[in-house]
Amino acid sequence: MDDTEVVIAPVDLAARVDEALAVQALAFGLDDAEVAVRRHIVVRHLLSPGARALGATTADGRLVGFVYGMPNDRSHWWSTVVEPYLRVSGSEGWLADSFVITELHVHPAYQGRGVGRRLITALTDGSDLPRSILSAIDTESPARALYRSLGYTDLARRVHFPSAPRPYAVMGAPLPLRRGSGGGN
Ligand SMILES: CC(C)(COP(=O)(O)OP(=O)(O)OC[C@H]1O[C@@H](n2cnc3c(N)ncnc32)[C@H](O)[C@@H]1OP(=O)(O)O)[C@@H](O)C(=O)NCCC(=O)NCCS
After folding, report:
1. pLDDT score at 163
2. Burial of 25 by CB count in 10 Å (0-12 exposed, 13-18 middle, 19+ buried)?
3. Ranges of the chain with pLDDT below 50
4. Which mutation among 28, 38, 58, 106 tests ligand 1's pocket best, with the greatest number of atoms within 8 A of CB?
5. Ranges for the N-acetyltransferase domain (predicted)?
6. Is the pTM of this model over 0.90?
């Protein structure tokens, strides 16, 4: 189902960081301490060169989903953590000229309606880079199914980020993203 009542558009996520983190807390599971840490990280991320964010907003203005990302910077923490894993799998080249999806979250009440697919497709369509990379918890989740349907494949698995209890998979896809079974953007 495509939820056309939810509008996908650029959003000042730094100004709405508390709303965004409330969505992420419900969708992904964050406690109050993690939200406090994330608030600083998100605001800093959004100041990175080329960082862009899209929000999914209801007719009455509520933020029910968001995505943001930026061109990969090989000196950034995320890139330095995944680089050795990609080197081992021979996919280090994916770190160059690549648009990183940093966060994608949809409020549980609005999941399964095509909002997540519209968010990530619209964000990457706005990039002129030839590829996109991201990390996702290394388990069979709705997120992993969505990413695969968009053309992302596994570049490395069992990737350990310091402080994250669960291993991640790093995935990459050529841009523009494949149009999946869910259809439009
Ligand atoms: C991942 C997430 C953003 C997807 O958003 P969404 O709006 O529910 O996704 P969509 O409705 O656009 O669904 C797109 C695809 O995702 C997959 N998907 C969605 N829900 C699924 C489910 N319950 N089980 C399996 N696959 C699922 C399907 O491939 C679906 O495509 P289809 O509709 O053609 O079958 C959302 O589930 C979410 O916020 N999850 C928790 C947070 C999270 O894991 N974020 C990603 C961090 S890496």
Report:
1. 82
2. middle
3. 182-185
4. 106
5. 6-176
6. yes
Residue 57, CA distances (Å) to 5, 54, 66, 119, 127 in order: 8, 10, 9, 11, 22
**Which numbered atom of ligand 1 lies nearest the CA of 115?**
7
Cα→Cα distances 140→21, 59, 112, 147, Å: 24, 33, 16, 11
Cα gap 147→164, rounded to integer Å: 21
Helix-helix angle 142-149:115-125, to 10 degrees: 50
Contact 85, 76 (CB under 8 A): no
Specify the pLDDT at position 47: 96
Confidence at residue 181, expressed as pLDDT on a 0 to 100 scale: 57
For residue 154, CA distances in Å to 110, 141, 159, 171 come to 27, 14, 11, 4
* Those residues with Cβ within 8 angstroms of residue 121's Cβ, 6 or more apart along the chain or in another chain: 150, 176, 177, 179, 185
Q: Say if residues 129 and 175 touch (Cβ distance below 8 Å).
A: yes
* Domain covering 7-174 in this structure, CATH number: 3.40.630.30
Q: Return the residue matching tokens 């990039």.
A: 127
- What lines the ligand 1 site, CB under 6 Å? 27-28, 104-106, 111-117, 136, 141-143, 145-146, 149, 180-182
